[in-house]
Amino acid sequence: MGAGAQLSVTDQRRMARHPVDHPLIAEHYGKGDMRMHIANISANGFMIDDADGIARGERVVVRLPVIGRIEAYCIWNRDNRAGFQFERIIRVDDFLALIDTLQPNPRLRKMR
Fold this sequence. Notes:
Layout: E1 18-28, E2 32-41, E3 45-48, E4 59-64, E5 68-78, E6 81-86, H1 92-102
Antiparallel strand pairs: 1-2, 1-4, 2-3, 3-6, 4-5, 5-6
C-alpha cells in the first residue's frame, strides 16, 4: 500500500471507547481473510489485540452486528495491537445498538 489511507474522516481519538470481546474474520485486500479480535470500539474505529502482520495504511472490510460491512484503515500499530479508523462515522443510534449487542453486560457499558 504505497500511498497510505485517504481518510474522509478526521482522526477523532477522543471519542469514547467501549471495551468489547469480539472475534471476527476481516477481509484484507492483500492477504485475504484474517482472524481479528476487537478489544475496544468507538463510533470512529476499533482496536485489535492480535495485529500480527498488519501495517499502517492497510485496509480491511469487517462485518459488525447492526452496522454490516464497513471498511477500516489501520492508522497505528504497536506491539501486538493496531488501531483502525472506519471509512465513515457510524450514526449514534446504530452505534448504541452495536454496543448493546457487543456488550451484553450493562455494567461494562459507559454512561450515556
